[in-house]
């Protein structure tokens, strides 16, 4: 009996082996699998796929390597002519989707099916989203990689040192520590920077992309201090973004920008003067009002940054760095700003403003019945110094609230405007008919009176 089952097993295996060999022979070869970059406009994926069986469909799976709440795979369906050899190509147009930051890593793979129904996936490949026009050089140190061109090595060393000093200062003062290498792409002027990114304001001078561990900037050509400050400021945004990353977190603007300005060192006179004046004239902005969007009016924007610095300076100076780290972690865990402050310091946003105002010698907070709501931010980039004048802070990112579209009410009858028009027409007709009837009645009465 045992021998019988053994022979049956050998027979089954012998029957399956040719099927396995046939399946292996159907595996396709992918050649010319290298994209063409037209930076920053688009990337075109090409490939030639050859198979022993006729290929009937091809799918391009692609994406970029960024920190997200879940796995994101985009799919494209290029048109092909079925055959044993197919040439496929598909273009990802950044002008329609929005551009990725310079230095982002793009991955892709091909999934194809033959006439037997067998599906095969090619090896996944990656490419760096960056122009090939400029002779980029890289200088590394610690957790920072500086990519540059158009400048000498001494300049790169100086900027790298400023960045490393900023990382060290952030770790000691606010407990913000880099957990992965950060890539800094430095453009020798603002025009080159603007040419490298799509749909950004003309005043863009630098921008942080925490989800990619990337920051970019242009060189001011007028102030080394501004260039150093820009590096430190943008690095802080990356560090804050990493520490607080989650799908349920919200970091108020005063805290995000306050930490970035605080990391640069003492507050510049450009911002200290409006802060002092606002304290003297009792014109400070409420903390809740700068939790979301900063004003686009320059005077109010400067005051917003100055107050943000002052708030962070008060919290760290009074309660220490560990409390600040605990606050950021609490926000990362999904607590509201009020709850995170209460959990960490024992007071909410209003309590923070009361304590802060007292500490800086300002008038007590004006109590309102309805406190300002804290909107959800959308990030935009750092401004360029006006007329080459250096800024002590690079205000990145401005926050603008995202409006919520109301759900439209369903209607089963005619539109309201048509209904009103019909009602008005009916009323007018009734009025005309009434006038005619009244006129007829009067005329008849006159005729009767005349006959008498």
Topology overview:
Elements: H1 2-26, E1 29-31, E2 36-38, E3 42-64, E4 74-76, E5 83-93, H2 94-97, E6 104-114, E7 119-121, E8 125-129, E9 137-141, E10 144-148, H3 153-174, E11 182-187, H4 190-196, E12 204-209, E13 214-218, H5 224-243, H6 253-263, H7 269-280, H8 298-319, H9 321-332, H10 337-345, H11 349-360, E14 379-380, E15 382-383, E16 398-399, H12 416-451
Parallel strand pairs: 10-11, 11-13
Antiparallel strand pairs: 1-3, 2-3, 3-4, 3-5, 3-6, 6-7, 6-8, 9-10, 12-13, 12-15, 14-16
Helix pairs in contact: 3-5, 5-6, 6-8, 7-8, 8-9, 9-10
Notes on the structure:
This protein is an alpha+beta fold. The protein has two domains: 105 residues, Immunoglobulin-like (Sandwich); 263 residues, 3-Layer(aba) Sandwich (Glutaredoxin). Helix content is 42%, strand content 21%. Strands 1, 2, 3, 4, 5, 6, 7 and 8 form an eight-stranded antiparallel sheet that branches. A six-stranded mixed sheet has the order 9-10-11-13-12-15, with helices on both faces. A two-stranded antiparallel ribbon has the order 14-16. It is extended and about 80 Å long. The N and C termini lie far apart (134 Å). The N terminus and C terminus are likely disordered.
